[in-house]
Amino acid sequence: MSNPTLILGTRKGLIILKHDGHRWQRKVEAFPGVPLSYAVRDQRTDTIWVAADHGHWGQKLYKSLDEGETLTEVPGPTYPEGATKWDVWQDPPAETPAAVTYIWTIVPGADDQPERLYVGTEPGALFQSDDGGESFYLNEAFWNHPSRPQNWFGGGRDQAGSCSIVIDPRDADHLYVGVSVGGVFESTDGGKTWDGRNKGLIAEYLPDPHAEYGHDPHYLTLSPSHPDVLWQQNHCGVFRSTNGGRSWDDISSPEQGIKFGFPIEVHPQNPNTAWVIPAKSDDMRMAIDGALFVARTSDGGETWEELRTGLPQENCYDVVFRHAFHSQGDLLAFGSTTGNLYVSSNGGDHWELISGNLPPIYSVRFA
Predict the structure, then answer these.
(1) CA distance 224 to 83
(2) CB of 278 within 8 A of CB of 299?
(3) Beta bridge partners of 328
(4) Distance of alpha carbon 132 from alpha carbon 135, whole angstroms
């Protein structure tokens, strides 16, 4: 372990921990009491970006140029005048003015786009900055996708959310966005046009479980070494694609409890190895049978092994949200809704609790 750093977005502020070669030490605590939905470091500039949910005061975006010691507010994404969202839960569904009600994720652009930054929001939208985050504009083509008015809707929240943004490492104009609830969308021209990529997914909550749209990818990612291999932890299972999302295979293992959950991580060199952290059903959202485990596959989802060493196996209620699990090769870290932070340095074979009694953890990212 070569002195890694962890950046946590929590229910009560920003926490940054660094390993000094012997143990993890807390280096930064900022914004105490403020819920932070996401925090990440832009490796290109060493800027730390933070999304804050101020409740009554709305969603705010901050950046830090000094490793989190100070945070400066920057103008966040806003919908243009006249933009509307569909409230499909109303009877009949109605259009109302769109406003950012949550910032789900912040994703730096490719290395050859040093000023590019993406933000995924609720209602489901993709915002883009081409000036290093000084200003953002709405991707109109994505926002105006014909499936949005009637097929995108809120699951655990009132509106659909763009919670995953994935950039093909071979081509910065090749993008995927996962919308919860809406589905997976692909652009091969830098966001000018978008196509749904949901064949093979199952939406058990829809009248037609195999509908083209209305799917719920909780978290979408790709294999860095083989970018045509995509993975997602979905509301209705774990799915894998080997053809760039044109079709998906259900690789769940319900008899082991490996079906519902939020996060998924993929090994950077091995496209057949991935990890998920299962939870007990969409209506309960708690550890299965009071025991926490990480599931790992090394054969593309044909089989799964349950990794439990070092994790609580009784009286446990931990759930891990979609952005609260991250990996650097065989170095893994996740934080739970009950404020526990675990790390494994050997691919999940053994886990260590490095901090407990933290606030509920919304995001975990290696710097």
Answers:
(1) 35
(2) no
(3) 331
(4) 8
